[in-house]
Write a structure and sequence with these properties.
alpha+beta, five-stranded antiparallel sheet, 31% strand, 200 residues, 2 domains
Amino acid sequence: MAKRKSKKQDNDAKRNIVIGLVFTIVLVCMLGMVYAYWLVNRTQDTTNIITTMGCLSVALESDTPAINVANAYPISTDAGMLTTPYTFTLENECETALMSNITLELLGATTLDSLYVRSSLQETGVSANNSRLLSSVTTTTTTISGAKASHVLIPNVVLAAGASSTFDLRLWLDSEAPYEFASDKRFEAKIVIVSAPFTP
């Protein structure tokens, strides 16, 4: 029959375990301190800094009334280029260059298919015939609530800090628009400017 350990032996065993743990902890701490003495730190003399843009703003100012044609009928491209444009000015109100997409968003009330609408957007003073069917213009995500589509008329317009640029927009019913699909329809749209910081 095995002898039961005395209370003194139990206490001695516990004390030995505690002493062993304390010794191990002290040893680990000492090794860490010795290792730390053998490390060399060097720090960069200058500071790396990133400051975020404080301004991202493009002003859109109407220089003429919006296009408003009642009882429109199909006209030739030459005649369309002679119509009175909607003229507007973009101005970069920031101290950094901005890049903008000039888009035309078709509003919810539009019933005329963009297959039959011809558009021209160019800087004021330019008279080249750059018209094209709206249906052939690249589309993008709409920004106006309820808009049906957004067409990028001129992408990547760069405006330097404080710079401005003026544009003429012309819209008309294409000469080949068929009566059965283009009669008694409505076309409503707005110019929208989508801007971002310019990175050369």
